[in-house]
Amino acid sequence: MDSTSKALQVSKPPRKVLRRSFGRLFGILLGMLLSATVMAEYHVDANAGKDTNDGSAAAPWATLEKARRTLRGGAQVIVHGGSYPAFVERRAPDVSQFLEFKAAPGTQPRLEGIELEYREPTDAYLAFDGFEIYSEGRLRLVQAFNVRHLRVRNSVLHSDHWSRGPHQGVFAINLRRTAHVLIERNRLYEVFRGVLIRKSEHVTVRGNFITVKGSSGVIYMSGSRYGLIEYNHVTGEEYTRYPEDPRAFDRPHQSIIAISANDLVVRGNLLHGIGNSSGMMLYPKNMPSDADTYSNILIESNALYDTSNNSALRIYNLGDNIVLRNNFFFSKKRPGDCDGVTGDAHYRYNVALNVHSVAEGFDGSGLELYNNIFLGAALIPENAVERSNLFWSLRSGKEWRERPISSDSRLIVDERKRCGRHPTLMEDGGFFRVKNDLNFPDKSVLDLTLSLPTAELPKVDEAQLPAFFLPPLEASGFLGAPVSRSRLIRPVPGPAQSPEKSANVPVSHREVVH
User: Fold this and answer.
1) Residue 48 vs residues 8, 56, 100, 463: alpha-carbon distances, Å
2) 376: left (phi over 0), alpha (psi -120 to 50) or beta
3) Which stretch of 14-18, 42-46, 145-149, 346-350 has the lowest confidence by average pLDDT?
4) Burial tier of 116 (Cβ tally within 10 Å: 0-12, 13-18, 19+)
5) Under DSSP, is residue 426 helix (H, G, I), strand (E, B) or coil?
6) Contact 188, 153 (CB under 8 A)
7) Stretch 95-111: mean pLDDT, rounded?
8) Is the pLDDT reported for residue 370 higher than 50?
9) Is 61 exposed, middle or buried (CB count within 10 Å of its CB: 0-12, 13-18, 19+)?
10) How far apart are CA 205 and CA 438, in angstroms?
11) What confidence tens digit (pLDDT) does each residue in 57-88 have?
12) Which candidate, 383, 388, 384, 385, places its Cα nearest to that of 373?
């Protein structure tokens, strides 16, 4: 052994010393980890508390504001049953950890609203979990301006009436110039509009059940970016129109999801029962901050149908990297004199996809379609990329096609079939497992289980399959856990997939929805 090796050997501590050192170090690190992750717990009780108390379970505070003034984040405040005034904040304390207001087990405290309006972008680090957010006078149940780090989860948001007159609709959630916001697993109803996102980034709207009257379920607009809208059930609700109801908004205008900004993922949503503007639309430029060219938008595993407009999905100003995969788009029958529908079979069903315009400097190749079901006419640019789609009818550029662009796709109406020669797959049970007369009473849910023989289905483009597909609908109206690709026997076009077994998806993804 040379002198260098001997020196190194001598310098090594004995094994027992190493074990004791590592043991002490592990204990210190574990203690630091536990102290960082276990939040201190305090209590608020509107009925039994006082703000002069210490906030303990035995001596709770009376208001959320007292907890906010006293604590500097990194704490959980258990809010007991009762009615609380709106939480209003114009100036946030200097915080870097979340202060979480959480409903006490078995309760749903009523909060009149949440109003966070800061003069400049500010870290709020506020979380609200398990509340009933209800108002009889407010136009915005949750309003956040210049707010960073906000969470609203597991709550019910509604008003006494969805509008306050012909020009004033009630918004459930209004976000402007916000960042890192999570809206998750909430029930929204008796509102004019669901969630409005404007000039915001890193906003996630996930796992909510949204019922709106008169306006959109989710609006993603005006300079927003890095948005995620996933696993929501959004539908409409009947209402009495103005002037029969003098409190009703007089000019309803709805797309189930309205888009006027880029850098967005729309995934695994069940969307139906509203849409006099369209089911989903990438809007023309209406405001200076709206996108004039659309790019970097992924729309996957969504089911969108029963829209009152004649187009399920409309796209203006198509730019680059707009990808649609494993979706289902459908917009009812088109009325006419052929047994109640139009005489041209191309339009037996209304327009499933309509690309109205391509942005200046682009050639239409920025649109990519994979594994979708378009039950209705698809009107796309000549240079669009498509593979493994199921089309009712297809117009590329100005010409109706007799065969799809990709040999892996299928086209049902491949020629100009007149009245008496229309395919009726949708109504006779040849397309989906259950026959449907397409009237959709009471905003009903459509069974999307395909009954087409395997030989008639396009072979899916496996390289473009999403990791997760449309979740099943629960009795509560919320969507359940998304279906994992790894559980499928054979993936098929569209969002509804039959799992191989009933095993749960990985915990991380189950928690995404619940």
Assistant:
1) 68, 12, 20, 59
2) left
3) 14-18
4) buried
5) helix
6) no
7) 97
8) yes
9) buried
10) 30
11) 999 999 999 999 999 889 999 999 999 999 99
12) 388
Taking residue 417's Cβ as centre, other Cβ atoms within 10 Å add up to: 17
β partners of residue 221: 198
* 197-234 as b/e: b if 16+ CB within 10 A: bbbbbbbbbbbbbbbbbbbbbbbbbbbbbbbbbbbbbb
Q: How far apart are CA 40 and CA 57, in angstroms?
A: 12
Radius of gyration, alpha carbons of the chain: 27
Which residues are within 8 A (CB) of 103 and not within 5 positions of it... i.e. 6 or more apart? 78, 79, 109, 129, 130, 131, 154
Q: How confident is the model at residue 501 (pLDDT cuts 50, 70, 90)?
A: low
Q: What DSSP string describes 116-163?
A: EEEEEEEEEEEEEES-EEEESS-SEEEEEEEEEEEEEES-EEEESSSE
Is 132 exposed, middle or buried (CB count within 10 Å of its CB: 0-12, 13-18, 19+)?
middle
Residue 385 pLDDT greater than 70, yes or no = yes
The residue-averaged pLDDT of 301-308 equals 91
Q: Dihedral sign for Cα 330, 332, 334, 336, please.
A: positive
Place of tokens 């509340």: 131
